[in-house]
Amino acid sequence: MKQKIAIVSVINDLVTDQRVDRACRAILKKGYQVTLVGRVQAKSLAMNERPYSTHRMKLLFTRGPAFYLEYQIRLFLFLLFRKSDLLWANDLDTLLPNFLISKIKKSEIIYDSHELFCEVPELLNNPKKRKTWKRLERWIFPKLNKIITVNQSIANIYGNEYQKDLKVVRNIPLKRELENIKTKEELGLPTDKNIIILQGAGINMQRGSEEAVEAMQWVKDAVLLIVGSGDVIEQLKQMRVDLALEEKVIITGKVPYEKLAQYTQIADLGLSFDKDTNLNYRFSLPNKLFDYIHADVPVLVSNLVEIVRIVKDYQIGDVIENHEPKHIAKKMQACFSNKKRYFSWTKNLKKAQQELSWEVEEQKILDLIGE
User: Fold this and answer.
1) Is the entire prediction scored with pTM above 0.90?
2) Which SS3 state, helix, strand or coil, does residue 86 take?
3) Where are the alpha helices (H) located in 243-322, listed in sequence order?
4) Ramachandran angles phi, psi of 309, nearest 5°
């Protein structure tokens, strides 16, 4: 029997998107030949070795309407001239070409919505652009039969709006045993300080990173390690200088996943400080929360429903009541000063790891393909 072919589409540069990588590996288990399509940027990291094919398009435009138009056309043409039995579209910005090709070629299509796309701040602050994307969503979404998303709150919102039954596949990482766990010293971090980590590919506005940096003025015997990329990174670097926090705030920028895992593994506290400024953030359940859990790192999080549900159910950390920097500092300090409570969090992480496993989430994908 001829091997079936799956093409997975995403608009980013592929390197650090763990969810998409896990989806591709799941599709492989169903016997498909898999190609992951994205784009390459000027500052893109090199691709690591993967068990499936990758293709990164180099676009002429990098932002604005021209970028999105070029990407849609280029992706449509890529899909048009390649055989595909399964099309997997990640987020609304890849959906149109995949949907059109699925109709032309009668291919199976699965839509993976990582967020409430039309509720991100970039679109809320640009009503005209949001209207365009919302029209596209309203046209295609009701026509889809297989849709997954990252948590139940988002599934409920989409389900109520479009009368669709969405499957929930949470962003839980693969269990990876690091071959050589590096020490703080080997990673260039102080050995006599607690390491507070804030990581992610979207360290952007309204995600609490600015307040986390400012809070470090009042936190003793700890450093804040910021690992990742986003639109406030340069601002954070300037804040570090303005507040004379060069020795207490370390910003690495974007790093390969393997190095990120090393940083997470040696951290003592993980942060997730998204603000309740829009529906997308209100119901977020970010990758980093599960990265922290599987690296045995207790967490300090903002009061968002999906995140708090996990933190409280498993008793693996604490919740901030507001984003005032002094309040955040007090909470950070309390995490370390109450050693009995901190120890109980580390014990509870073991149970959370067992129940919040990728094996459970992956089975939902395996069941969905070919239904």
Assistant:
1) no
2) strand
3) 257-265, 279-282, 287-294, 305-314
4) -55, -45
> What type of residue is 304?
L
Residues 6+ apart with CB under 8 A from 64: none
* Distance, CA of 175 to chain centre: 17
Residue 100 tokens read as 């059109």
**pLDDT digits over 89-141, tens only?**
999 999 999 999 999 999 999 999 999 999 987 888 899 999 999 999 999 99
Pick one of 3.30.460.80, 3.40.50.2000, 3.40.50.300, 3.10.20.70 as the CATH number of 5-172+358-368.
3.40.50.2000
**CATH 3.40.50.2000 domain residues, the chain:** 5-172+358-368, 194-355
Edge-first strand order for the sheet with 5-9 is 53-58, 33-40, 5-9, 86-90, 108-113, 147-149, 167-168
Pairing outcome for strands 167-168 and 53-58: unpaired
Residues with Cβ < 8 Å from 297, sequence gap 6 or more? Answer: 197, 264, 267, 268, 269, 270, 349
- Tens-place pLDDT, residues 264-315: 999 999 999 999 988 888 998 888 999 999 999 999 999 999 999 999 999 9
Contact between 258 and 48 under an 8 Å Cβ cutoff? The reply is: yes
Place of tokens 């390459």: 40
